[in-house]
């Protein structure tokens, strides 16, 4: 077995982990402000849309809700490393931002999302609120709980509000 380098599993874990600084988390008053702004954007868009769809259908068109749907949309988006000739058609949906509950248990449920989002140039906002973040994120999308949501880039008021938040925090 000459020439074979043993794999150090500890190194692999460190390489896969995406370190998040304490300032990257939205919690407390900052979290309340973020969720209020998003809620206001949702309400404004719904009011301005005269022939509106039922609320659940409208939310589904604007927001990818849940870990599976966020993952699915991210996987369909073009990766930074993908050649344009390989897939000339743009994906049907682009995500503007992904919001992930940071204090979910087990952590492995959402662990893949930050790396996948980074490979698609989609910013990730982490929220935590003493084990209540999933409840608060769920309230935003009219569900009991949600561990992850992805806001679809549709060019509406919600996207403008989130763009302001992202540029202010960067």
TrEMBL record:
Q: Where is the composition biased (Basic and acidic residues)?
A: 11-21
> Which parts of this chain are annotated as the region Disordered?
1-21
In terms of superkingdom, the source organism counts as Eukaryota
SUPFAM superfamilies hit by this protein: L30e-like
Q: Tell me where in this chain the Ribosomal protein eL8/eL30/eS12/Gadd45 domain is found.
A: 95-152
Tell me which InterPro entries the record gives.
Answer: Ribosomal_eL30-like_sf (IPR029064), Ribosomal_eL8/eL30/eS12/Gad45 (IPR004038)
Question: Protein name, please?
Answer: Predicted protein
Organism of origin is: Arabidopsis lyrata subsp. lyrata (Lyre-leaved rock-cress)
Q: Which classification does the entry list for the species?
A: Eukaryota, Viridiplantae, Streptophyta, Embryophyta, Tracheophyta
